[in-house]
Input
Amino acid sequence: MSLDPYTVLGVAKSADGAAIKSAYRKLARKYHPDVNPGDKAAEDKFKEISEAYDILSDPAKKQEYDSLGREGFYERGFGGAGYQRPDFNQSEFSFDSIFGDLFGGGGGRRSARGAGGFPGNIRFGGAAGPRKGDDVNLKLAISLREAALGTEARLELGIPQTCPQCQGQGVLSAGGGIRACPNCAGRGQVNHLENLKVQIPAGIKDGQKVRLKTKGSPGDNGGPAGDLLVEVAINPDPVFTRKERDLYADLPVGLYDLLLGGEVEAPTLTGRAQLKVPAGTQNGTRMRLKGQGLPAVKKEPAGDLYVTIKAVLPGKLGPEAKKLAMQLAEAAPPAMAEK
Ligand SMILES: [Zn+2]
Output
């Protein structure tokens, strides 16, 4: 035959390993004897394709072919004895091995992953054909305010991708042998750093997940990538406790406002709200601020804010204040004086 392998596979001299493999794949599928039983022309064509791939997929042979040229390679090349054509009865050219190795089934190496804090798993074998990549889970801590009002979180993440050097095979052929791919350490995947924006919807609950499509593990054999599931963990808030859509907080109120009544300010998620405290309000009284809980979203109405009054007593009294306090103690109703 002694054909030019580049012409046989229809690839340019500058084609990289992936382009060569892809061209071989397409032609091998078309001309394989198992697909064309009894077709001598297809069988010959398949042998040409396999031979071309045998040369171009092997860096040492490819380099020798490139430097010696077609004639030199076939006559003098490869070890000085000329190029030895592969034995096409060898199992490496069998239908199973081509379709297994190249299309990922029947014992071919499957995806493996482990770096970047993602749970690692290594899978061998499995069914041929496209397979969706695994979903990847991630926890994201946000504040109660961010959960209540919604936010856009930015993440810098290593997103697993098919290793470009070995095309996800985890191995490279070199010098007639096979070695683990140095780029991915044999995992078949590498992490690609990406800046992601995660939209956290208002009112999200602790443990709820936000799905980012196709940001999980890459698929096998042309299958789609899995998704990234961002699980929200809401940090405890120094002011508010949340129950469903309502919020709870303590509210310190001065003694005179409690005794005489007054208007005080209560903290809310977005700022402050005015609250009227009636005269004679007891310590520990719970008051409701309507609509000051979680804001309304879609069909969910706004929640309320409940504040528990915590009396704040004045500090050490001076002589004048002490005298007035004694007068008050005598004049005040007994229940209040005993309190
Ligand atoms: Zn690799």
